[in-house]
Amino acid sequence: MNILHIIRNLALCLIMLTTVFPITSSANDVSQDLIISEYIEGSSYNKAIELYNPTSTPIDLSSYTLVSFVNGANLEQGTKGSVQLEGTLEPNDVYVIAHQSASDAILQHADLTGGSTAFNFNGDDTLVLFKNLNKDTYEGTVVDSIGQLGFDPGSAFGQDVRTQDTTLIRSHLTPDKNPEDNYDPSAYFTALPKDTFDHIGSFQSDVTAPEPEQPQSEYTVTVSKVTDGDTIKIEPAILGSNTIRMTNMDTPETYHLGAYDAELIDSNHDHSQKYHGDLATKALSEMISVGDTVTIKVNVDKPTDDYGRILGQVYDGNTNINLEMVKQGYAVSYFIYPVGDMNVYHQFQDAVKYAKDQQLGIWQTEHTLMELPFVFRARSQGKGLQRYVGNSDTKEYYLPENYQDISVEHRIFFTEEQAKANGYTLAEGQDAPTEPTEPEQYKQVTIDKARTAAQNTPVIVEGIVTYIDGKNAYIEDGTGGIVVRSENTSFNIGEQITAQGKTSSYFGLSQIVTEDITQSGAMNEVIAKEIDLSEANETHEGQYVALTNVTVQSVNEYNEFLVKDEAGHTVLIKGQSQNDLEVGQTYAKITGPLSYSYSNYKVLLDDAQQHVEEPTTEEPTVESPSKEKPNKGKAKGKNKQKKSHPKFDTHPSKVKNPHAA
């Protein structure tokens, strides 16, 4: 080797050592394709995905599709939403996909916006970036992914680094091309606080996560909203959350009904719950108002619950509002281990005993609360009672269903392991039966009988599958319709199935929960039952129905369209995006299953047919084509243009199954 070769090689080494690369990664794993460089799942509609081109050549985006798999959906079943990319992405540049109602701080960098499922992902949804995707078979090349197909994590993937209420910045360029394996976001991303938008629009991997905010024992905040009897909104946020779940107490729920019937508050559990829930909300609103400055006292060892809400006691001056709600009978004391300060525990338990002895609020004799809030939630959400109940006086614990064996002023809720670890022993008579019990007898019934059966009744029903919505299969048999709730809903529309399970209710929607399902293979034609809007009620819940000659009045933020008929009756149509139906348009027919949630009956949009205008003899007016050319590249800087997600194609006068998107 001569001296010239040595000098040349030294120069090359020097160049390599001094060159600043935009990002770093494992040498053999560096992506040679698009990669998800930033993920925003923030408050409200602050949702965005940033894609980065790490290659040295422009990438044509038209062959790429981002798919959101909702709540454990996979390639074969469940709710999916997709968005087709467009344009060209230059080397070392980014492409931002954002919800159309996101913050301006996000939208100013957005290249593609929309409001459908793909844009409205949550922390428990899986996102997969495909190349050359066949949307009929979902076959394509996986370029990158976040989450795990076929698995619903509950609220988010990950532990310390989570996919909920966060901004995630890519820490290296190794893609996740296997969306079916276990997913840990900390292996790919650095987490920043919720609603951090400083990095969107340009990619840098050398982002340092801030030191976690250490919880304080007290915060001074301003009340921005009274949500219900035990929940308020505050400003500024505490540990990234604006929601305070008031601790050591529990008020009746209000979410399940729009309004209570005064004639049913003493005979119907749901109306009794709503009645007392409204009273509790009113009482809390009189104790503290929007704009009030309050103190939040937090247990620093457990400052948040599983939903990310701050657990705290609210003080107005020296008045403990939580304690006052219990003392006046609007709330029951409610302690889930760890209890914390036992002096505080006894204050609340003395207060609930006082309210009960004085027959105040929920303890009144005239309109007694029929079901304590935790019992109502266990029933209405179909989860059942799950926590063991400890008696703080005797140090014994009881099975979840035997909570009434302990007076309310002595109850602490545990897992069995927690109860034993704290010195509690199983109360006499609480052991599981040792003698064999008779197996439950499942009785074959018609769907109308299953709908009116008591909760947890073992039944067998047969029906034709009319519609599939994630884990819910709508079936009917001529007597009525019902939801079969199952992890496996890989049925064919029109197929007859037999389901053996127990009756349940989820937020008021009748269902049978089971994994014991037999597919007959026999196929039937699904015929929509034509009903008037006034008949969209309990009678037809679960059935596949048709509404005729209805006009769209409005659409809300949840993609629910209010339609009205000529008689003035109205009902909601649940779509997947703001573009599924057109406000002001009259539709000859809208079909889908009649569902129920959040106090309203609503039709899940499956098909919509617009009125077809009579042909005219006049010559149509044809607009001259625009001479502007579409922007195939990417606008830079402040003049970057936003592109909107295209509407569903309604020509010729028909929208077909937007849920299959």
Automatic annotation (TrEMBL):
Q: Name one GO molecular function term.
A: endonuclease activity
Q: Which keywords are on file for this protein?
A: Endonuclease, Hydrolase, Nuclease, Signal
Q: Which Gene3D superfamilies match?
A: 2.40.50.90
InterPro entries recorded: Lamin_tail_dom (IPR001322), Lamin_tail_dom_sf (IPR036415), SNase_OB-fold_sf (IPR035437), Staphylococal_nuclease_OB-fold (IPR016071), Thermonucl_AS (IPR002071)
In the UniProt record, the signal sequence range is 1-27
The Basic residues compositionally biased stretches are: 632-645
Q: Residues annotated as region Disordered?
A: 611-661
Name the chain's protein. Endonuclease YncB(Thermonuclease family)
Q: What is the lineage of its organism?
A: Bacteria, Bacillati, Bacillota, Bacilli, Bacillales
